């Protein structure tokens, strides 16, 4: 992180608001112990759908400009307490502010305060965060430079006991009514006029290492909605000429007052040899349902570019990629995914194939280009809902 002196004057004035007006400290002294980090991202999507049936006519062409800026400020209050805030220039869900080029004119985007909490580290090997903060769980995304973020107001505690880390948290309100890929489903489950953001959440976890293997186990309960647990194992092995890795996770979610089991299991293998790398992954869900994440980018789900088995029943998804580090600053890969699942009584299939070029101009500036095809078909009726090409350009600066 860089010292706050490198920020713009507008941001500096915002940080100065942390200090009491009564103290009337000079600006230089007020920001002396403030650090800043953040990101600026621009993304352009161009999606073409060759299936021009009346139902899909509005989706035939979708070109969209997307923007997001995130700014996290950490001000040291004293030796034990740090004040943390996060501002985002984004949509209300803290995700991309997107404007369709054929529908919207150029517009300005609001600045919002997404985090404001105090972090206490006065106890040995322990950190306690109190206030409005990111939901740091495997089911949610607390901070994301190019996606939406889930937040809540409450308390989170982490403590190290030898080789084990224990975590516990309680939140009395969240933004899950506005952010996350299941917000519509969750709000509907609360009943007419319900707001899932008012439901309490509590979670507990244990994390540790056995040799090269990192293990974690989490439990989470959302009042009157569901309870869920997840178990994960992850490791990397350096065998001189080849580097191997694996990531395995199982997640189960049971809805309250509903006799439905939701399960998702996934396993990912990675390998790297010289300039070449490869990944092979599989994810599956239970025939009764696969709701196991509140955001598709969460650890408990499995997100590719266009596909995810989260919230899909009886899903089998395969994902593979082959890459090469063509230059120190350029990585090229070919990526393929295929998924079968149930939608009611219908058999569905999705598949995608795309090439990706990742360019790293410097440590804090780079981006990627993707181009390929994505299809979604109802195998029972033979109708293709989506049949087209997709392209993306993304540029990101971090500081």
TrEMBL record:
**InterPro entries attached here?**
Campylo_MOMP, Porin_dom_sf
Q: Does the keyword Nucleotide-binding apply?
A: no
Query: What Pfam families does this protein's entry cite?
Result: Campylo_MOMP
Q: Where is the signal peptide?
A: 1-24
Assigned keywords, A-Z: Signal
Which top-rank group of organisms is this from?
Bacteria
Which SUPFAM superfamilies does the UniProt record give? Porins
Q: Can the keyword Magnesium be found in this entry's annotation?
A: no
What protein name applies here? Campylo_MOMP domain-containing protein
Originating species: Halarcobacter ebronensis
